[in-house]
């Protein structure tokens, strides 16, 4: 640091006398002017020490975040859907008309389209095999028309979000396998690519047996269905005013369930079994006087064989079996009839 001096000047007036003490008592020295300087040295204090402040920082703590685990959703099992049927009733050919109504049976459909040489004809609605689409088409004079029938199946969302439908079906044949060809013109004879063969709808068998066939009252008889077919309903009629009906769920059951019946009084009874296939075809078989019941203590009567009566009704209401299965069933039935 720098240093500095402080000077103090003492000045006396000219008339003032300054007597030197060393000469006091001798001659007096007259000083006309005396100047005295007084000097004082001052030294600046040492500088303050510089204090360095060290900042001590607290380390920042990093927080570790554990990610949230997203649960894996459980997949929904969707049952395999059965394809909807598409049936076209046989067309009229040849014809001298300039229009014709095409009957289309498509399960759970919302639109049906018929395309042929005269144009495209469409209809929308809620159609099923029981509520067919009736499409009116126009025909060109003296022209052979080749029909293509298409149906759009509705989309249905089932349990668990399972989606069914939403596709289209198409065919160029009627429900019996014949080509959908219409020849317009009264003198035109169409030349089909093959001779259409109509396969009869399979008839469900209604054959059955009972055991025992005779005995004293009360007599309990067990009845067993001998045939196999995809049945949706069957009825046992026991001949004493009572009957038992089984309604079979799903797409059909192989045979009518075995049942028992007790005949409380004596007499001869005709037993009938009626079965209905899932296609709607029904068949009945009756065995007249097949059960003989006599009073307790009486001798058993002499049984006289009676012919079996079979009644077949053909009222298709639902989809038929694939063509191959129908053909095999028909062939088996024809062989049985020949035997």
The tally of domains stands at: 3
Mean pLDDT: 75
Q: Which structural class should the secondary elements be placed in?
A: mainly beta
What is the ordering of alpha helices and beta strands? Answer: EEEEEEEEEEEEEEEEEEEEEEH
Total helical elements: 1
Query: Might you state the CATH topology name of the largest domain?
Result: Immunoglobulin-like
Beta-sheet strand percentage? 35-45%
Distance between the termini: 143 Å
The CATH architecture of the largest domain can be given as Sandwich
Please name the fourth-level CATH homologous superfamily of the largest domain.
Answer: Immunoglobulins
Main sheet overview = 6 strands, mixed
Unreliable spans are: 1-21, 23-40, 197-201, 315-327
Any descriptors?
single chain; 339 residues; Immunoglobulin-like; 3 domains; six-stranded mixed beta sheet; four-stranded antiparallel beta sheet; flat; disordered N terminus
Write the layout of secondary structure elements.
Elements (H helix, E strand, L loop, with lengths): L2 E9 L23 E9 L42 E3 L10 E8 L2 E8 L2 E9 L5 E6 L5 E3 L1 E6 L2 E2 L5 E2 L3 E4 L9 E3 L24 E4 L2 E3 L2 E7 L5 E7 L5 E5 L11 E5 L3 E11 L3 E14 L14 E6 L8 H16 L1
Parallel strand pairs: 15-21
Antiparallel strand pairs: 1-2, 3-4, 4-7, 5-6, 5-9, 8-13, 9-12, 10-11, 14-16, 16-19, 17-18, 17-20, 20-21, 21-22
Q: Can you describe this structure?
A:
The structure is a single chain. This protein is mainly β and 339 residues long. The chain folds into three domains: 3-43, no CATH class; 86-183, Sandwich (Immunoglobulin-like); 208-321, Immunoglobulin-like, CATH 2.60.40.10. It contains one helix and 22 strands. It has one helix at residues 323-338, and strands at 3-11, 35-43, 86-88, 99-106, 109-116, 119-127, 133-138, 144-146, 148-153, 156-157, 163-164, 168-171, 181-183, 208-211, 214-216, 219-225, 231-237, 243-247, 259-263, 267-277, 281-294, 309-314. Strands 15, 17, 18, 20, 21 and 22 form a six-stranded mixed sheet that branches. The chain has a four-stranded antiparallel sheet with strand order 6-5-9-12, with no helix packed on it. A three-stranded antiparallel sheet has the order 3-4-7, with no helix packed on it. A hairpin with a 5-residue loop joins strand 10 (156-157) and strand 11.
């Amino acid at each position: 640091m720098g240093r500095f001096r402080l000077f103090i000047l003492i000045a006396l007036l000219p008339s003032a006398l300054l007597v030197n003490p060393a000469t006091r008592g001798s001659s007096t020295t007259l000083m006309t002017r005396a100047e005295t300087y007084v000097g004082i040295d001052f030294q600046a204090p040492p500088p303050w020490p510089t204090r360095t402040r060290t900042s001590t920082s607290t380390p920042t703590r990093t927080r570790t975040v554990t990610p949230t685990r997203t649960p894996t959703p459980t997949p929904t099992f969707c049952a395999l859907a059965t394809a909807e049927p598409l049936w076209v009733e046989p067309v009229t050919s040849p014809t001298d008309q300039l229009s014709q109504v095409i009957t289309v049976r498509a399960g759970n459909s919302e639109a049906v389209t018929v395309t042929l040489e005269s144009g495209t004809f469409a209809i929308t609605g809620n159609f099923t095999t029981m509520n067919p689409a009736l499409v009116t088409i126009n025909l060109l004079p003296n022209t052979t028309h080749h029909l293509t029938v298409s149906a759009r199946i509705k989309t249905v969302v089932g349990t668990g979000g399972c989606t069914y439908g939403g596709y289209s079906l198409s065919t160029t044949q009627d429900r019996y396998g014949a080509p959908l060809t219409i020849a317009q013109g009264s003198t035109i004879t169409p030349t089909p690519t093959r001779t259409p063969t109509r396969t009869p709808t399979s008839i469900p068998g209604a054959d059955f047996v009972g055991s025992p066939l005779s005995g004293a009252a009360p007599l309990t008889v067990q009845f067993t269905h001998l045939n196999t077919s995809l049945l949706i309903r069957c009825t046992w009629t026991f001949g004493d005013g009572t009957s038992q009906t089984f309604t079979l769920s799903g797409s059909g059951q192989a045979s009518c369930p075995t049942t028992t019946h007790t005949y409380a009084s004596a007499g001869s009874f005709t037993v009938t079994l009626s079965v209905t296939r899932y296609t709607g075809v029904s068949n009945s078989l009756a065995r007249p006087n097949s059960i003989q019941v006599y009073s307790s203590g009486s001798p058993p009567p002499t049984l006289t064989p009676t012919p079996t009566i079979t009644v077949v009704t053909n009222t298709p209401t639902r989809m038929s079996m694939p063509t191959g299965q129908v053909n095999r069933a028909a062939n088996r039935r024809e062989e049985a009839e020949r035997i």
